[in-house]
Amino acid sequence: IVLIMLALPSLQILYMMDEINEPDLTLKAIGHQWYWTYEYTDFKDLTFDSYMTPTTDLPLGHFRLLEVDHRVIIPMESPIRIIVTANDVLHAWAIPALGVKTDAIPGRLNQTSFITTRPGVFYGQCSEICGANHSYMPIVVESTPLTHFEHWSSL
């Protein structure tokens, strides 16, 4: 009886923590070997692949093995829902500075949410051992003011 009295409220709290109410933006991340595909589901035809920038093409001052050719741009101070899946093997979409880590599993959609409170660039990587080159799947999220995001999304 004691275990049931502890379990029922705990299950309700777990469900409520995972529920996302009215996000301002939904982003879908699809893991491939060895890159990510991003889809902004609230916009028509806003999809791109994000590959790691080779060291030979890296601009001065950027991080080696962490920079990508296409960054994910999000508006700051807006609830963001991210839906994560994979196309081939297990991956994990992880950005430690935002407190986000979600497994990407083929055939399954996992979701989480986050809010950035300041503009900036946040770096992450695939944190699942998905093969020999899993460390070459960086993730870069750039948080910008809403006006900059609107201008970027209309291009």
Automatic annotation (TrEMBL):
The keyword Electron transport applies. It is a multi-pass membrane protein. Belongs to the cytochrome c oxidase subunit 2 family. Residues 1-21 form the Cytochrome oxidase subunit II transmembrane region profile domain. Keywords: Copper, Electron transport, Magnesium, Membrane, Metal-binding, Mitochondrion, Mitochondrion inner membrane, Respiratory chain, Translocase, Transmembrane, Transmembrane helix, Transport. One of its GO terms (cellular component) is mitochondrial inner membrane. This is Cytochrome c oxidase subunit 2. It catalyses: 4 Fe(II)-[cytochrome c] + O2 + 8 H(+)(in) = 4 Fe(III)-[cytochrome c] + 2 H2O + 4 H(+)(out). Gene3D superfamilies: 1.10.287.90, Cupredoxins - blue copper proteins (2.60.40.420). GO terms for molecular function: copper ion binding; cytochrome-c oxidase activity. Its cofactor is Cu cation. It is an enzyme of class 7 (translocase). InterPro entries: CcO_II, CcO_II-like_C, CcO_II_C, Copper_CuA, Cupredoxin, Cyt_c_oxidase_su2_TM_dom, Cyt_c_oxidase_su2_TM_sf. Pfam families: COX2 (PF00116). The keyword Lipid metabolism does not apply. It comes from Haliaeetus leucocephalus (Bald eagle). PANTHER family: CYTOCHROME C OXIDASE SUBUNIT 2 (PTHR22888:SF9), CYTOCHROME C OXIDASE, SUBUNIT II (PTHR22888).
